[in-house]
Write a structure and sequence with these properties.
Blueprint lengths: L14 H22 L4 H17 L4 H6 L12 H4 L20 H11 L1 H5 L3 E6 L2 E7 H4 L12 H11 L6 E5 L14 H18 L8 E5 L12 H7 L1 E7 L17
Parallel strand pairs: 3-4
Antiparallel strand pairs: 1-2, 2-5, 3-5
Length: 265
């Protein structure tokens, strides 16, 4: 008895499967494009990661996934050729911002107004440098010769300076100087120690009597190395025996201790 041959039935709706896959890919593509144009980069990253996760957990061919964004293993393919995988784009780090500093122009005018008599008498000098406002106080009338004890008659002048210092958030540097006359006694072995001791005495006065915050101040001793007058004359040596109070500018803050700069490898 002859075996009856059964005809194969043709499925005319198989194209719907491919059509559905195409719609899914188009939807994913436009989601990624939309996410890349958003200003909220956090949300965009979340959307991109979600789409990437969907790719990994589905049956989408790797070639199509590479075209839509790539993966860490697909560097140089599709969009990854330009920017790598969407979820691995490194963020550009912004440089650390310095603390907000007030405009020192108005502070300079205030100091000139309040210290006009002292400036006219040569007791105080004011000038501006890139690092900030430098207030020079003549140590001939502030300290006894070879000593670090501030003369009480200078308290009113220093008090006027302290009033302005307390109005500002800026850092303060107290820079002690000496003339070239050698010194060696039981207290100071050199002009370096003398200049640093004068700065320290000024710091204690500003903190204890005028309530200037200690964490804003730094003391420096330059010895005789930063002369502004001729050490061969008495008038020049008088100029060199001084303590400078520096109201540090924003630019000057760049030289102050801060975050460690990472070394390049």
């Amino acid at each position: 008895m002859a075996r009856r041959t059964r005809k194969k039935e043709t499925n005319h709706e198989r194209w719907l499967v491919s059509y559905a896959d195409l719609l899914t890919l188009l939807f994913a593509f436009f989601v990624v494009m939309f996410a890349s144009t958003q200003s909220d980069h956090v949300k965009a990253k979340q959307i991109s990661e979600a789409v990437d996760k969907a790719f990994r957990n589905s049956s989408i061919p790797p070639r199509l996934a590479a075209i839509l964004g790539g993966s860490p293993e697909d560097a140089g393919r599709g969009n990854a050729q330009l920017k790598g995988a969407a979820h691995t784009i490194p963020k550009t780090e912004q440089p650390p911002q310095l603390p907000l500093q007030l405009d020192l122009t108005s502070s300079l005018k205030t100091l000139q107004s309040r210290l006009s008599s002292e400036i006219g008498a040569g007791v105080v000098r004011l000038h501006v440098e890139e690092r900030g406002i430098v207030i020079g106080i003549n140590t001939q009338v502030t300290f006894p010769s070879g000593g670090d004890v501030i003369t009480p008659s200078m308290y009113p002048t220093i008090g006027k300076v302290a009033e302005v210092l307390n109005l500002l958030p800026n850092a303060i540097r107290l820079e002690g100087h000496a003339d070239s006359v050698p010194i060696y006694n039981d207290r100071f072995r050199s002009n370096w120690e003398l200049s640093a001791a004068r700065s320290l005495a000024m710091m204690h006065l500003l903190q204890d009597r005028y309530h200037v915050m200690a964490n804003r101040m730094a003391i420096i001793g330059y010895g005789e190395t930063k002369a502004i007058g001729d050490n061969e004359t008495e008038a020049g040596r008088t100029l060199n025996r001084r303590v400078d109070i520096v109201i540090v500018s924003n630019l000057g803050m760049r030289a102050e201790p801060g975050k460690e700069i990472p070394s390049s490898k």
